[in-house]
Design goal:
By secondary structure, the protein is an alpha+beta fold. It is built from ten helices and eight strands.
């Protein structure tokens, strides 16, 4: 068996115990490796030590609680295994450059750390155990999203997520993982950043409250999106090995097969043709098509 599978099992196990005690010995027993081999392989496949990864995942989860709840800072610190508010504050500042109290007030963008995936993308070519759904099982729904700010990066002459981030990763001062984490830290309707197809290329960004201010150092663009209706096409569920198939199926239904005129929908492509959403940590994929207000 590919040893990355065992390390991914360890990563999955860790993520389910971030608010509990975690020891190298427990992780090693869980995947059947020695402590030394576990540590070495984890660093080899993730680029991070186990201790640092667990710390950053805990801090990232705690940041979301600070942003989205009114729970006391000390309670959040204890929940994620810090023995004092002072220790939590020190680690939080070292990771994100802001203390927990200030972050709660400002909700400034910080580089959250996502759960690692050491199998992607190689495992996407392996067959999964779930049979892909029929076209008619793609969920289609109408939804309205209130006025908001869209904070984004834009690149012309690239027309999909992979090419967009391949280009970003070549640019000085940018990286895919860092920017995904920054965007995910921004409060909004959607938990993570998402992409969109335009006439000239591809954009990737995040919804935020209209009054939200982003640090200019990231060089994001901003636009106010008015209250609009969207037609949403969503896959009902798949495993990661089937992501590419699910993506193509939803795109085909939403962008090629669906007859908008027949259903009396008029598209609004004044900003983007369509938004596409997929999870960094959970398998999902859906497309939102902007509709003109009538």
């Amino acid at each position: 068996m590919d040893q990355r599978v065992n390390i991914q099992q360890a990563i999955d196990w860790i993520d389910g115990k971030l608010d509990d005690e975690i020891s190298l010995q427990e992780i090693s027993r869980y995947i059947g490796y020695s402590a030394f081999h576990t540590s070495r392989k984890f660093k080899e496949y993730t680029g991070s030590t186990l201790r640092k990864y667990i710390m950053l995942r805990r801090l990232s989860m705690s940041a979301k609680e600070l942003r989205d709840s009114d729970r006391k800072i000390i309670d959040i610190a204890i929940k994620y295994n810090f023995n004092s508010q002072e220790a939590f504050t020190k680690s939080f500042f070292q990771a994100f450059g802001v203390n927990p109290g200030a972050y709660r007030k400002t909700k400034q963008a910080i580089p959250l750390i996502f759960k690692k995936d050491v199998l992607f993308p190689e495992n996407l070519h392996k067959e999964g155990s779930i049979i892909m759904v029929k076209d008619e099982e793609i969920k289609v729904k109408l939804e309205e999203i209130a006025e908001h700010k869209f904070i984004y990066l834009e690149r012309d002459d690239v027309y999909n997520y992979i090419d967009f981030w391949d280009l970003i990763d070549t640019e000085k001062g940018y990286s895919c993982d860092h920017l995904h984490g920054v965007l995910a830290s921004i409060p909004g309707t959607f938990s993570e950043g998402f992409g969109a197809f335009t006439e000239t290329g591809y954009i990737f960004g995040k919804d935020a409250p209209v009054t939200y201010e982003i640090d200019s150092k990231y060089n994001f663009k901003e636009v106010i999106i008015p209250t609009m209706k969207y037609l949403v096409f969503e896959h009902p569920g798949f495993i990661e090995a089937e992501f590419e198939q699910a993506l193509k199926q939803v795109r085909r239904i939403a962008l090629e097969k669906f007859d908008y005129k027949l259903h009396n929908y008029e598209l609004d492509q004044s900003f983007v043709k369509a938004y596409e959403h997929s999870g960094m940590e959970i398998c999902y994929y859906f497309i939102r098509i902007p509709l003109k207000n009538k």
